[in-house]
Design a protein that fits this description.
heterodimer; A: 466 residues; alpha/beta; D-Maltodextrin-Binding Protein, domain 2; 2 domains; five-stranded mixed beta sheet; 23 helices; 14% strand; B: mainly alpha; 12 helices; globular
Chain lengths: 466, 298
């Protein structure tokens, strides 16, 4: 009881800062009093099975694994039936969800991309899973603390992590050898990355293929223990500005500009037809290194197994840190699961039961082995399945190690800002300006900061906070 | 006398009866939304549906008008219009002159030249998009292969989209110019010819002045057409493209404000701006250009 109190007080603090504090809190308090959200009693007292709709956006191999896990869950008990509704991309899912808020036809459970965390809270249409954890007396146990921290704002667990990954360095060992580099010693920091790319390029091995994904920028900041946004990355108070216009940010932009100067890098946009050019180019031998999500590992292995790429032997390494003596860590990426505020307490409890199943050690081990997402529990990482996988294929362990090394602080928890999509576009545009028009790194960085801050302020103002 | 008054009243009643259906439709679908739009512009909307909007007065208008994205959008819009209208009109005139000759089979050319009018924006965009594709397109085959690819290149995306709009506008421009040429008084041309005017003089001193009402009409229509282009940008560029900020013309900005940013207030402000621009451009055209237009007296 006391715990629920604390959670709802923290929730009130978050909501209290937004548009309609009185009305929102009033209605919340009323609904909480009559039917406690997420109560397991609501589920046990309901007649017949409770069906919930779950919007998920896992493509291909990952989607198959999602279906397999859910089938197993539906067959394992009679109280809850999960109905998978497959969506397209993360971005379109959230857009569709927002439209659904108008029509009223929202799913009971929604899979949302990491960067939508603050936005999801701001829709005021989800209950924090903390409510369910408290109601069910759920212990987080050996769930990785940094991963949980990503979906926590003001100490309240809002979404529940499920498919979690980290950005990793993919490189072609054969090209390294041909260029006279040691294939077992990939670059570990940005300046080493720059010089390695240059060596590879001058030795005719193709340089670096780079997708302009602002996630990597955020990660580099965190490896240098630097915040992306103010107010502790938006974790203790709503972020009102970005905070990356500093020496760490400049180190990253300088490195990108240097690679452009060396002619050792080619970029592609995160969206559109060229989305996978960095990965495909690494396969074709056009590039010898690239940075991308660890969740692509399963697909990469499938492609390599076809034998189409005889000149490629893929090595996987942690994303190079911002500097050689950086003391930070890598924040998690991926997706979280969100329970609707509009569903009945029985459906909310049903959704929680399903989430608890998905995040169990057994499910996580199976999920990780099939996809390349990391196992979210230490016990899952120590399971025979995962141990065998990692022994055979060490690349799969890289992201897990990334997310379990370094300090646990607000920098490594990652940032939450409401309009993250637009903020990311501002960062990507600044990065692109380094490559397209040769803008000075200092100018590009301060432009990114100024534009992103304007976007955040306009968003906060629209929420009535400006 | 009385019967005349009655008859006149009846005529008025009939006139109103005939006008009312159209008036009602206009009122419901045009006038009412038009007025509501001004109201929307005074309210600021939260980023997500279902949360309350609040009254902000004119501050939303001023903040929008001074924002970089608006100024960038305005710049792109004018660049787009300045590319499409003059080239479209000139091309249409050239085609019309070429097809005006009384030769056998000319009707076929007239059909071909005017056919772009009936092509759909979506089809045109897809065809041109394929031609501009960096891998299978016509441009790389010609050795033109900018990096980044033309449709995601901040410098070239807008001209590329303008090419499609020009191509589509050519048909209409051709029809307008042909109509103008066909109604040109033959005796004036003949008189000029008899006076010994050579081709360039004929063109600049006789044809163009006589055609000026037609060109003027084409200019007004073309400007409105260019300001309202949407489909090409939506299909070939889209809001996630790296070149997007340079192709975000006003009308498209209205669309993204509404459907991507979920911001009816911003969309309302932008559409009012678009309305004001179109109104003043048209008024300016009438005010300053009409004086130079020569209307032939019958």
């Amino acid at each position: 009881m006391n715990r629920t109190r604390t959670a709802s007080l923290a929730l009130a603090a978050v909501l209290g800062a937004s548009v309609i504090p009185a009305a929102a809190l009033g209605s919340m308090a009323a609904s909480a009093a009559s039917t406690p959200a997420c109560s397991p009693k609501a589920l046990s007292s309901s007649k017949g099975p409770v069906t919930i709709n779950f919007w998920e956006s896992m493509p291909r191999a990952n989607g198959e694994a999602m279906v397999a896990l859910t089938k197993k869950f539906n067959a394992s008990q009679k109280k809850v039936h999960v109905n998978l509704v497959v969506q397209t991309t993360y971005q379109e899912t959230f857009q569709k969800y927002r439209s659904a808020l108008t029509t009223g036809n929202v799913p009971d459970l929604t899979m949302l991309e990491d960067i939508e965390t603050q936005g999801a809270v701001d829709t005021q249409s989800f209950i924090p899973v903390q409510t369910c954890m408290n109601a069910a007396g759920f212990k987080t146990g050996d769930l990785l603390p940094r991963v949980l921290a990503y979906w926590k704002i003001n100490k309240v667990q809002w979404g529940m992590p499920f498919g979690v990954s980290g950005p990793v360095l993919y490189y072609n060992k054969k090209a390294f050898t041909a260029a006279g580099l040691n294939p077992s010693k990939p670059p570990t920091n940005l300046s080493a990355l720059v010089s390695t790319a240059k060596t590879l390029k001058t030795k005719g091995q193709g340089g670096m293929g780079m997708v302009l994904d602002p996630w990597h920028f955020e990660t580099w900041l965190a490896t240098g223990n630097t915040l992306f946004a103010n107010n502790n990355n938006g974790r203790t108070k709503r972020a009102t500005a970005t905070a990356f216009n500093n020496s760490t940010g400049l180190t990253v932009f300088n490195a990108l500009a240097q690679m452009k100067k060396d002619g050792s890098v080619q970029t592609n946009s995160i969206d559109g037809a060229g989305r996978y050019d960095n990965l495909l180019g690494t396969g074709s031998g056009k590039f010898s290194m690239t940075i991308d999500t660890s969740a692509a590992l399963g697909t990469i292995d499938q492609l390599l197994a076809t034998g189409q790429y005889p000149n490629v032997d893929v090595g996987v390494a942690p994303i190079p840190a911002v500097t050689a003596n950086a003391k930070g860590g890598v924040p998690p990426g991926g997706n979280g699961l969100w329970i609707s505020k509009r569903s009945t307490p029985a459906k909310q409890a049903a959704a929680w039961q399903y989430i608890a199943y998905l995040d169990s050690a057994t499910s996580q081990a199976a999920w990780s082995a099939a996809t390349g997402y990391i196992p979210l529990r230490t016990s899952a990482a120590n399971s025979p399945t995962i141990k065998a996988l990692w022994a055979k294929n060490p690349g799969y362990s890289v992201a897990y190690k990334e997310l379990t090394t370094g300090p646990q602080n607000y920098a490594t928890a990652g940032a939450v800002v409401g309009p993250f999509d637009d903020v990311n576009t501002a960062v990507a545009n600044a990065e692109a300006s380094l490559f397209v028009s040769g803008t000075a790194p200092k100018t590009a960085l301060s432009q990114a900061q100024a534009n992103a801050t304007k976007i955040i302020q306009a968003y906060n103002q629209r929420l009535g906070l400006g | 006398m009385r019967s005349l008054a009655v008859r006149r009243r009846r005529e008025w009643a009939l006139a109103y009866a005939l006008v009312i259906p159209a008036l009602v439709i206009f009122a419901v679908f045009t006038f009412y939304p038009f007025i509501q739009n001004f109201k929307l512009a005074l309210y600021q909307n939260p980023p997500y549906p279902g949360l309350p909007s609040h009254f902000v007065g004119l501050s939303q208008v001023t903040s929008t008008l001074t924002s970089t994205s608006f100024l960038q959008s305005l710049e792109s819009t004018f660049e787009f219009v300045l590319l499409v209208v003059p080239i479209g009109l000139f091309g249409g005139l050239m085609l019309a002159l070429a097809a005006h000759k009384k030769l056998k089979g000319m009707a076929i050319y007239q059909v071909i030249f005017s056919s772009t009018v009936v092509s759909s924006v979506a089809v045109a965009a897809v065809v041109f998009g394929t031609l501009m594709d960096p891998v299978v397109g016509l441009l790389p085959w010609l050795g033109l292969n900018p990096h980044p690819a033309i449709l995601s290149n901040p410098t070239w995306a807008l001209p590329a989209v303008a090419v499609i709009a020009i191509w589509q506008f050519l048909g209409l421009s051709f029809i307008i110019m042909t109509a103008g040429l066909q109604s040109m008084p033959e005796e004036v041309l003949e008189a000029a010819r008899l006076d010994g005017a050579r081709a360039p003089t004929m063109f600049f001193r006789v044809t163009i002045p006589l055609l000026s009402p037609t060109i003027f009409f084409g200019l007004v229509i073309g400007t409105i057409y260019a300001f309202q282009s949407f489909g090409q940008i939506d299909i070939l560029i889209g809001p996630q493209n790296a070149a997007f900020t340079h192709t975000n013309v006003l009308l498209y900005y209205v669309y993204t404000a509404l459907s991507v940013q979920n911001n009816p207030g911003l969309a309302a402000v932008l559409s009012i701006v678009l309305f004001v621009i179109l109104l003043s451009v048209t008024l300016l055209q009438f005010r300053f250009l009409e004086r130079r237009v020569h209307y032939a007296s019958n």
